[in-house]
Amino acid sequence: MQEVQGLQGAHQQLQISTKKVDISKAALDELEKTPEGTRMLVPITSSLYVPGETTQVQSVLIDVGTGYYIEKSVVEAQAFLKRKIELMAGQGVSVRQAAAIKSQHLDQVLRVMNQKRFQAQQAAA
Question: Is residue 23 pLDDT above 90, yes or no?
């Protein structure tokens, strides 16, 4: 039961992470289309924004995990994000399949336990 719940939790986290990467890719696509000199608010922290203007985007920083960032061209960054989305989608399918198998096994065990309990009650009566 705990394994199934753990796998379901992992699947939900993968969905959340995939949505975040999707949002990042969409933001990169929009930034690339935005004309130079467009005024915007730039996030410094999750709650602090400062005014700024767009410039010609040559490269961007990509978070590759555990606090590491790499500089990539926009095209390379888009390809990286696309691969990451595909990888996470594949992992989501694998986790969902594993959860389904564990759930089936749990159902089988519970069914056998209920049959044994019913047989024991019948024998005692």
Answer: yes
How much is the pTM? 0.73
Q: How far is CA 70 from the centre of its chain?
A: 20
DSSP string, 36-96: TT-EEEEESSSS-EEEEE-----EEEEEEETTEEEEEEHHHHHHHHHHHHHHHHHHHHHHH
Q: Which amino acid is at 2?
A: Q
Contacts of 21 (CB under 8 A, 6+ apart): 81, 84, 85, 88
The string of pLDDT tens digits covering residues 37-83 is 999 998 899 899 999 998 888 899 998 888 899 999 999 999 999 99
Neighbouring C-alpha atoms within 13 Å toward the C-beta of 57:
22
Phi, psi (degrees; rounded to nearest 5) at 58: -95, -40
